[in-house]
Amino acid sequence: MSRRLPRASGYFRTDYVQEQRLLQTRLERVSAVVFGLALIGFPFVASPFQIDLASQVFLASVGALSLMLLTGYAGQISLGHAGLLAAGAFTAGILFKEFGTPFWITLPTAALVGGLLGVVFGLPSLRLRGLYLAVSTLALHFVVVYVGGEYETKRGYSTGIVIDPPSIAGFEIVSPRVWYFVLLAAALLTLLGCINLLRSRTGRAWRAIQSHETVAEALGISISGYKLLAFVISSAITAVAGALFAYYRGFVSIEAFSLFLTIQYVAMIIIGGMGSLLGALLGALFVTIFPYVIESVLGALPGADRYAGVLFAVNYAAFGLVMILFLVFEPLGLVGIWRRIQSWFLLWPFKHRPISGSGR
Amino acid sequence: MQLAVNIVVLASIYALIACGYVLIYRVSRVLNLAHGELMMLGAYLLLAVASTFVFNAVTAIAAALVLSLAVGVLVYVFLMRKMTGEMVLAAILTTIALGIFLRGLIVIIWSAQQQYPGQALALANPAIVLPGGGRISMFAALLVIATAVVYGALFIFLRFGRWGVRMRAAGQSPLLAAQRGINLHSVYALAWGLSTLTGSLAGMLIALDSGLTGTMVIIGLKAFPAALVGGLDSLVGALVGALIIAAAEISLIHYVDPLLSDVVPFLVLIVMLVFRPWGLFGTREELDRV
Prior knowledge:
Chain A has 360 residues and is mainly α. Chain A contains 15 helices and four strands.
């Protein structure tokens, strides 16, 4: 992970407590505090639009992190994540509409439904690999979306389900600023959970499976168990993200969970950089902000109103192009660029790392 | 009777599209998820040709087919060539990204409105009454014939053609094929070209039959289960798979629920993946090669 090249001067741990710290050096601690303060201060200076954007980024981060666990670490391809988001959102929507349940029940239920679906999504992975696995999750995506659409039409909510904002002890979460903090907390919790999961036995087992299944099995790792676990955990987190999305928008419609959404999430982990949690965050940021950047760039061009009608098409084309460029020219993603910058500074004035004895 | 006619028409649509998936997969082990978009691009190329010079329908279609062949080759040369030897996921994602790019590009150029290349070419689309009481539109009948012709031609080409043999060799073992002096890049480029060509032919005929919008992509995506059910590396499999998917889809729509239309192919696909992931006619070792 990011600890691959600790510090240029060398950092030697002397006991287990030091080893287990998340932030190991003073620079890391200081920058984390500064970054945290910036995150807390942000909604008090930003415009409502920017706050909404940031909230979307946090929401996307949760989904991207969970997908990164599955694809980037456990090595299982999933093209069905929009289906899982839809499942979470619809669990929240249906529970609210049919039973009026409060959100501290719907969120865990969404996680439960997501986990169960994760078993279903994961079962093919026990027999299939690579391409065929991707295809089976893709197929399941269509099934979930169909079931959601069926519910909408059969119950007469063909335009979508409206959900009231969640309330805690009589206090309703409506204002964007409060939502910002709720979603920030969700993203942070997911991040912490993922970090800790990955440095535990489970995370090591996943990485072993990703590197070489046969060897992993020879090491005594239960392949099917850990594969299913990866699917279950990833799906549960994704479903919670879906439920949060439903509450945040106050509205659920199956239209929102198209195949394009799946592709966006996959793009997040590709553009961010495979096999890195930081990558998932960067990717979520990039992919969420990208359409707005395109929009403002187009708006700045002469003859802006001429493009207004085809804005979404320009978005599509530009998104596809960026994805292609990353896949072809920078397969390591944004994290790859970041690491290169980092090591350029760390190694200066040298260009390359010494071949051996670099303390890895 | 009408039901049978519908099944045959849908099956030939799926079969004609699915052979594009099979061609590319068989030769280069890449799953081309941009096939639906490439097919749609072919249909729009027909529209472009038809609106610039309306000689007659046959010339226009031929010109559009040549263009789509060129598009397929260009896609390989400029994009997929760089992905040779990369992870499976990376190659699939590149085709998905290409698909998104094309979808946006098509709307930018031709707008998202429904278009009728049939009108642009001043072609009528009369319904033909078959013996037995079924009705079929002219272009649908043409599509069935085209599918038969394309499959016949592909069988002959792959069995006896010099390049066809090269394609099969490259599919079986790229390393040995290259050592025998086969230029892999031109073989792959040819596969992409042919696949786009057959897909475009399907796209054009569907567009002539029932108009042209961005939703055509979904047909392309639904043809993919047909290819997989039959076995991704088998042309016969694609035919049989198309027939199975089409029969399941039409009869379920007819007897159960029209909303099922988009999901049936994928349900069949899941069942297939659980019991026989390599498809009806596919090679079993496939699974471990991926």
